[in-house]
Specification:
about 170 residues, mainly alpha, Four Helix Bundle (Hemerythrin (Met), subunit A), two-stranded antiparallel ribbon, 2 strands
């Protein structure tokens, strides 16, 4: 596993990028459907919602580790995709609670600031994140330990940031 402090810093930088997108989503009144059905702002809202749930699960995995409760095991797909740091485009569907509902820019930015504060707070827990054996369920990947949840955050952000990049490229053509 790569250095968790470096991974943590990368996740914070990604959240900062999402916050910048929320604060200035660009001039994309609609998404390019060949790229995505969502605008960059909708992707940012999805990140805020998904990160809230992911951080809840990461925190639950830490707590399970403290109590000695293991939780479910990671699935093969989760192991492979986290190792590759890649999510295939257009294959999965966002779970209902993480789907954007077209909140306004200020609401999305506020939600992302709250996410950033929670990710920042993990800095003081990185030793526990690295050593905890507790796990919490992801709907596709199975039971992830806290370090795997942090890697999932990075991988999920990276996946959607690439989509936003492609939306922006499509609009410049």
């Amino acid at each position: 596993m790569p250095d968790l402090a470096a991974l943590h810093g990368e996740v914070l930088a990604q959240v900062d990028r999402w916050l910048a997108i929320a604060e200035d989503p660009g001039d994309f009144p609609v998404a390019r459907t060949a790229v995505s059905g969502w605008t960059p702002l909708l992707h940012a809202e999805h990140m805020a919602r998904a990160d809230d749930g992911s951080l809840h699960q990461l925190e639950a995995a830490i707590e399970r580790g403290r109590t000695g409760e293991a939780g479910p095991r990671i699935k093969l797909a989760g192991r492979v995709l986290l190792a590759l740091r890649w999510i295939p485009r257009g294959v999965g569907k966002a779970p209902e609670p993480s789907r954007p509902v077209e909140a306004d820019r200020t609401e999305v930015a506020a939600a992302l600031r709250a996410v950033r504060a929670r990710v920042e707070a993990l800095r003081g827990q990185l030793d526990e994140v690295a050593t905890s054996r507790g796990r919490a369920s992801h709907p596709i990947f199975g039971g992830l330990d806290p370090a795997q949840w942090l890697r999932f955050l990075w991988t999920h952000h990276h996946h959607h940031l690439k989509i936003v990049r492609d939306i922006e490229k499509a609009w410049r053509r």
